[in-house]
Amino acid sequence: MSGQEAIVCPFCGAPYAGIVPSDVVHVKCKYCGGVILLPSHLSVVPRCLNHPDTVAVGLCSRCFQGVCKKCLYLHRLEGGRTYLCPTCMQARRSDQAWGTIGLGAAMFILALLFFAVSPLFGVFFILIFSLPFIAYGLYNLKRPLKSLAPTIQEIQETREARKEEGSISVDAESLYWRMWREYVRTMGAAGPTILERRIRAYMDKGLSLDEAIKKLVKTERYT
Q1: What is the helix (H) or strand (E) element at residue 157, kind and residue range?
Q2: What does the pLDDT average to over 58-63?
């Protein structure tokens, strides 16, 4: 701790006179027992961009800011994955949504050209192609981030719950998250709950967690 700066307890106003280790983000007041959050420049521990009192667990792959497990989203891509903070996750969602809306708008313009030749075909093209793309893009703009990708904390909590229910192999866990993405994509925020119910239904028939996941994947052809 620098001798030029005093740390004062925000609860009782007493100065903190102890030694401050460099690998902590808070200390405890010896007078009232309150937890004092250290200024970021007094600690070398990386902190969450959104929660300064929480240690960062990783960096956003887009802006390289440190965030905690509540703020770090696992965004899966074709052939890989990336980790994004809430701000960058929102930006990615907006980019994808506006891309879908733009495609729908382009289809609408094309439909107008078709309309000049065949009004019936032009209306059909708008209803079947253009409007659904625009509507889906607008829907994605308002979807909560948690319906698009799980946070590191959600993944850890799911793993802990799985340990209590029974062992799960690496392959089964990979299949589970593949289904999770598909359920969210097709059913929205209710997707994860529906997925859990269907897995539970197989487990109620005597299958293990591992077997239930693989059975559901095979039944619904997610492989």
Answers
A1: helix 152-165
A2: 85
